[in-house]
Amino acid sequence: MYLQGQVDEDPVAILQASHAAAQQPKVKTEEQIATEQAWYGSEKVWLVHKDGFSLATLLKTEAGSLPEGKVKIKLEHDGTILDVDEDDVEKANPPSFDRSEDLASLQYLNESSVMHSLRQRYGGNLIHTHAGPNMVIINPLSAPSMYSEKVMHMFKGCRREDTAPHIYAVAQSAYRNLLTTRQDQSIVLLGKSGSGKTTNCQHLVQYLVSIAGSTGKIFSGEKWQAVYTILEAFGNSSTSMNTNASRFSQIVSLDFDQAGQVASASIQTMLLEKLRVTKRPETESTFNVFYYMMSGADSTLRTELHFNHFAENSAFGIVPQSKPEDKQKSSQQFTKLQAAMKVLGISVEEQRALWLILGAIYHLGAAGATKEAGEAGRKQFARHEWAQKAAYLLGCTLEELSSSIFKHQAKGPMQRSTSFRGGPDEVGAGDSSGSKITALDCLEAMASGLYSELFTLVISLVNRALKSSQHSLCSLLIVDTPGFQNPRMAKRQRGATFEELCHNYAQERLQTLFHERTFVQELERYKEENIELALDDIESSTSMSVAAIDQASTQALVRTLARTDEARGLLWLMEEEAVQPGGSEDTLLERLFSYYGPDQGDNKGHALLLKSDKPHHFLLGHSHGTDWVEYDAQGWLSHAKQNPASQNAATLLQDSQKKNISSLFSSRSGGPTVLSGSIAGLEGGSQLALRRATSMRKTFTTGMAAVKKKSLCIQIKLQVDALLDTVRRSRVHFVHCLLPKADAVGVGGEPRVAHGESCDSGLMQLDVGLLRAQLRGSKLIDALRIYRQGYPDHMVFSEFRRRFDVLAPHLTKKHGRHYIVTDEKRAVEELLESLDLEKSSYHMGLSRVFFRAGTLAKLEEQRDVQTRRNITMFQAACRGYLARQAFKKRKIQDLAIRCIQKNIKKNKGVKGWAWWKVFTTVRPLIEVQLTEEQIRGKDEEIQQLKGRLEKVEKERNELRLNSDRLESRITELSSELADERNTGESASQLLESETSERLRLEKDMKDLQTKFDSMKKSMDSMEMEVMETRLLRASELNGEMDDDDTGGEWRLKYERAIREIEFTKKRLQQEFDDKLEIEQQNKRQLERRLSDLQADSEEVQRTAQQLKKKCQRLTAELQDTKLHLEGQQSRNHDLEKKQRKFDSEQNLSQEEVQREKNIREMLSREKDMLTGEVFSLRQQLQDKDLEMCAQNVKLEQLEAELLDLSSQETKDEASLSKVKKTMRDLEAKVKDQEEELDEQAGTIQMLEQAKLRLEMETERLRQTHSKEIESKDEEVEEIRQSCSKKLKQIEVQLEEEYNDKQKVLRERRELETKLLSAQDQVNPRDVETEKRLRKDLKRTKALLADAQIMLDHMKNNAPSKREIAQLKNQLEESEFTCAAAVKARKSMEVEIEDLHVQMDDISKAKQALEEQLSRLQREKNDLQSRMEEDQEDMNELMKKHKSAVSQSTQNLAQISDLQAQLEEALKQKQDVQEKLSALQSQLEFQETSMVEKSLVSRQEAKIREMETKMEFEKTQVKRLESLVARLKENLEKLTEERDHRSTSETREKEQNKRLQRQIRDIKEEMGELAKKEGEASRKKHELEMDIESLEAANQSLQADLKLAFKRIGDLQAAIEDEMESDDNEDLINSLQDMVTKYQKRRNKTEGDSSDSEVEDRVDGVKSWLSKNKGSTKNLSDDGSLKSASPPSRRRFCFDKSDEEEEEKKEGGVSRGSYRSRNTRGSYLNNSNSEDKLSETT
Q1: For the chain, counts of helices (H) and of strands (E)
Q2: Alpha-helical regions (H) of 1616-1686
């Protein structure tokens, strides 16, 4: 929905303006810099809430004023101050990024910033946005003018970086890659239904056909518009989400030739929703072509189709449209459809066949079917008159049509469609299931089968119009599938259908392909190339939801009816349940939930499959769980069952009596145009089309697919597999189409405008929640993050070197243009070093060089510039060569012309000669006869050659046709052979698997039978034993009763024993009750503690999740900051390059200044020389003046003589001639002198002109130099400001890092104090508890042991040897375990001490680093102050320099004025010379005419006056020259001072860089120390846990050991009175052996201090043995006998040694231990008295 004011604007102007605005300016103004700094200073953030996100300002608060995890913000729109969670806040980008063309260029990458940029662009009529290598398009819901031909030519031949984002830019990029790499390309469109995928697909095809062109213009935009008109009519319909939704998937293939033109094209379709013809959800329609035909057919066609009267109702729900405007639109669309078919060359008869089939489908729906009533019901049509019309239109009889629909047998070739798996049991199952198929199901199957065949025919006719036999090189594929379907988005309460599940499944597989190409392959490539990249945990792909649909089992090839426990997808379960005798939707869903449903305790976040409250409904989470779709599984099993009626549709059409129908379908029956009725459009004439068809056919004929390809459910998976296999072979470009809001498209197809939308905002309405869900589902932000952080562009070493070596001409000259090197990696490294790229912008792998985003584009731009320059130079060289060749040709032509002219002159001389006339007349007549004969022979040869050529052409055409026919036949035979071969292999695999399964089952059955027999025998024997035992017990009881009657003594004994037993039972019961009460109390305490621990655990888990989210957010912000820092570093690198360039230019300018200085010196020297020459000339002039004076004197003398002579009338003629001769001589001398004066004046004039030119050149150079100096000064000022800003930023970063480090140190100290306090608290409390528990346990176990001994003594007179042996083994095991535990504890203590030492070292190193950091900070501050002082000095120096330059300009102005005065003086001099010449002429005249001398004297006076003026001007010039020299010296001094300041500034910059490097090294060391500290703390924690576990094990072992010794002591007390007999000799010997073994082991492990208690126990055993053996024998340490103490003393010593050992361990005697010893002693005394009493009794 576009704003009215924006629709009328020029789209080219809009795109160009947006692209220009999105480009970052190279130089920022001060206002922009100030605005940006103010933005960063205010710290703007986005507050995320349920309605979207809002801009806010993060407020600074004091530490502790807010709870942990809370921040204080201030909203921008109303100024509200809120306390919110940290997780609800995301960083905002500066306003310059609001309409960024590439989302990857955002400074802070998060959901809110991305959605804000998209919303801003969408509001500005910019619906296209780059997302790294992908494109994001928000559906504008209208037809804007930005897809015109003018916009197409705007993108033609441009790179991605040169134009604004557009769908044409994607097409241009794919086309450019196809031409440069000669690799197949694919464009995949992803998105929800109604997001504009099909429209963008049309724009892509139109752009490629328009820009690339085709040979002979066979592919025009009109033809492709006709193609899409037909596809929309036959494949689109109205749904709840889109009024013109595609109901099939398609691959548009464009094949290009060597020149980059479209050679051929084809369309493959799959996943057609053919059941929409018969049934569909409510409020949705069938395919558009039915409404077009019913509304737009003319009267003739209506009569032929029997459409004069429509049925009132239809079984298929196909009814005419009721609204007049809808009928009018449909009629117009039908006319447009007929015109499109005419454009594609579909004849009238072929169109008529299509209309007949569509009319037959309509009449079948009107005919309907009967409902069977029980078994006697018969399947037939409900209205036979409509069925008769359908049969007439199909060209068959009513009986044939009825039998094809309602009788379940396949006809003719359709028997092949049954799988070879169908054995006798499956045939029976098919028959039994066939009885459940209703008549309406059969009718619907026939209609859907007819429409499927019709759609396949339409695709074949379209491909026939698009195919071409031209040779093609590579292809460009465009994939368009129906989008995600969710009825809840359209506010529908129904569940999604099976067809919508199939379309969603195809979209999920394409999303999986996007995840694989974007994440998996990139990470694998980095791993292969040994590139370490710190990325966040990438979430898994949509494999879980995909597996819930199509996961196959390992027994997929085994034919079995048993339900196994192996997990498989929904499609496989549907196939199994369809053939199971009791299969239903309930069992289907039950099995599906058992495999993929949530486990106990799982929630929605862990499982992607959930149960619904409604029956037969389930929820499936698509798009990583962001889009939950509720599906209704009612009737889904019918999709998995073959219906013979649908299989008979093709046979019915092929056997039709109407020739136009039968000819179309019979011609298709032999060709492989359809794979199992799944994929249509596999025909094609080009090699690439055949290769694609072979690839898809291979998908359906290999492995499991060969067996399951006839299964209706598995066909869906195979079609999507074929689609993805075709796309995977090419380079994929992804286009994400986004839906702006859920209710975007209305019922009538017009966009709905929200009334609450204001035009002032400039933004179109967007559903932020829907947009956020689409972004999360597509994983665009994760893709952008890996694109920003990784190296998306990569090239092989050799390819990169060959492509970009033009940028390094010196390497090319060094090695040659096509040089071959052994080490490509080294050559690429040299090339990169010469390109002067920043180190962080590329990474060298093992076989490839990787680049950051945008780096390769910059290199391409540099390469284009260099290539243009080289081509320009090459063109100039070519033009020069051509000009020289033309000049040589002109010279030759000139020579030829002269030769022709010479021959013509000679011909004129001989043309009147008689013999020449005879020769010219006879010569042609001689050659005529020969020429005619030659021409006749040549004509005959030409005719023969023409005949041979025609014959050869004819044979060639025949051979070409034969070869084409044979090649097509070979391809068909090879495909059939491959199918049969794969089928045979699959059959053999099936047979082998079934055989192995049968053998395994038989073997299992035999094993179970043998087990059953053995168990039965053992049960019988056990029953006999039980019966015998019962009989024996009964007889014994009877015998005892008889004996009791006879004797009384035994009765008394029996009664006494009974009383004792009862007393003992009561005592034991009381003890047991006490113990039970204690244990119950302990249990309740433990339960309370367990509940507390569970609550703590849940709280810890929640905290851990919050911390994980926070960590992810902080990591993302850190990565964004890192990328921003890298960008700043790259900008700094560019500035350094510019600085170096500026320095080089400055050096060149300085050299030019020096050269100008040298030229000026040379000119001054020349000027001095000229001045000297002028002085000499003036001296000569003075000499000449003197000579002239002398001549004048002579002249006066001569005049006097002349007067004397004239007075003498009688003068002699000889004297007169003599005087005349003298006069002539003088005149000649005067002329010579005048000529010399003229020459000298010309020389003077030339020198003055040269001087004027030099002064003008000097003035021009001075002005250019001053301008350059001013520009350089400005650049130096800008660089200084940028450096100062960088220093401030680095200072801020250092302060932040220092604060973070101090915070980490404080946390570490707090943890250490907590650890020490916990250790201090734990040790005494655990020791006391351990003591108390040990004593209680000893007392309880001793009581139980005594009771058990008394009972055993009453029952058996002899002790058990087996029990003693068990105790002995337990004793040995306890000893070994105790020793191992003690050693482990010691080793753990040593490791803990080592860890403490390491922690001390780390803390010392940290302190040293802190000191170093502070020292560097101080140095930095000093350097900064020095830099500021130097800057002030520099400013003063620049002021002085500017004042000196202004003074020099004033002086130069004065010099120019003086030069003007000098020129005037020279002009006056010329005037004087002219006057002098005039005077000389007058002198001559006076000489001749005897003029008076007074005039001559006046002229001489004027000459002297002029000479004095000349001398004055000369002195003035000398004074000015000295002034100029002085000014030059001042200027040189100023330039030297400026150079000195510039060198000092560069030195300060270098020192600053060195400090920055040191700071960076310190940061790295601090990071390493932090890592070591974390690792040490982790090791410490692990060791503490190991110590605790070992201590617990040690305590338990010690307790078991003490219990064992107690039992041994009790056994000694119990059997010491019974050891007098000789039967106990074996027991004594065994105990002696045990003691001996212990003595040997103790000797081996001597030196342990923890075995004193055990030695005491062994001594007690020795004493007991010695007492029983006799007092004369002794027991030595190695097993010999010693004298023993009495038993009572021995027992007392034994107990005392135990208590002393415990007191040694505890470190003292407490009151509780004293009380326990007294209790113990009293208990022993009581036991001794009882023993004595029993002896007396």
Answers
A1: 41, 24
A2: 1625-1644, 1652-1669
Structure token pair of residue 636: 């889904």
* Residue 103: C-alpha distances to residues 913, 1006, 1695 (Å): 96, 68, 83
Q: What is the pTM of this model?
A: 0.59
Strand partners, 54: 47
**Which three-class secondary structure state does DSSP give residue 85?**
strand
Which amino acid appears at position 28 of this protein? K
- The token duo for 1584 is 């503490």
Residue 1383 pLDDT = 74
67 and 108 Cβ atoms separated by less than 8 Å:
no
> Quick check: 737 and 197 in contact, CB under 8 A?
yes
- The angle subtended at Cα 106 by Cα 105 and Cα 108, nearest 5°, is 140
> First CA to last CA across the chain, in angstroms?
112
Output DSSP code: residue 602.
-
Candidates 1228, 1229, 1231, 1250; CA nearest to 1239 is: 1231
| Cβ(233)–Cβ(333) below 8 Å | yes
Q: HSE (CB half, 13 Å, CA atoms) of 1289?
A: 14
How far is Cα 600 from Cα 869, in angstroms, rounded to an integer?
Answer: 71
Convert 113-137 into a string of H (helix), E (strand) and C (coil): HHHHHHHHHHHCCCCEEEECCEEEE
650: its two tokens: 């093709």
Q: Does residue 758 surpass a pLDDT of 60?
A: no
Give yes or no for a contact between 307 and 359, defined as CB atoms under 8 angstroms apart.
yes
Q: What average pLDDT does range 271-295 have in this prediction? A: 88
- β pairing state of 842-844 and 52-59: unpaired
Q: CA-to-CA distance for 751 and 1541, rounded, in angstroms?
A: 69
Rounded Cα distance, 843 and 860, in Å: 18
What does the DSSP 8-state code read for residue 102? B
Burial 152-168 (b: 16+ CB within 10 A, else e): bebbeeeebbebbbbbb
76 Cβ partners below 8 Å, 6+ apart? 44, 54, 55, 56, 57
Question: Phi and psi (nearest 5°) for 377?
Answer: -65, 145
Give the least confident one: 893-907, 1030-1044, 1290-1304: 1030-1044
Per-residue pLDDT tens for 700-720?
Answer: 555 555 555 567 788 888 888
Cα distance between residue 1655 and residue 1639, in whole Å: 9
Instruction: List, in sequence order, every residue forming a beta bridge with 479; answer none if it has no partner.
Output: 188, 251
Distances (CA, A) of 1279 to 27, 1151, 1264: 12, 23, 22
Q: What does the block give as tokens for 438?
A: 């209703």
- Tokens standing for residue 1286: 């960088």
Polymer length in residues for the chain: 1737
Q: Which neighbouring-strand residues pair with 135?
A: 130, 735
Q: How far apart are CA 797 and CA 806, in angstroms?
A: 15
Chain centroid to Cα 230, Å, comes to: 38
Cα separation of 932 and 934, whole Å? 5
Backbone angles phi, psi at 258, to 5 degrees: -65, -30
- List residues bridging with 631 in a β-sheet: 496, 618
Q: Tell me the C-alpha distance between 626 and 646, whole Å.
A: 38
Tokens of 387: 């069925």
**Neighbouring residues of 919: CB distance < 8 A, sequence distance ≥ 6:** none
Burial class (CB in 10 A: 0-12, 13-18, 19+), 980: exposed
734 pLDDT tier (thresholds 50, 70, 90):
very high
More confident residue, 1115 or 244: 244
Q: Provide the pLDDT for residue 1625.
A: 55
Q: What is the CA radius of gyration of the chain?
A: 56
Among residues 551, 555, 554, which one has the least CA distance to residue 572?
551
| CA atoms 1370, 1373, 1376, 1377: torsion sign | negative
CA distance 5 to 762: 10
Q: In the prediction, which pLDDT does 660 show?
A: 86
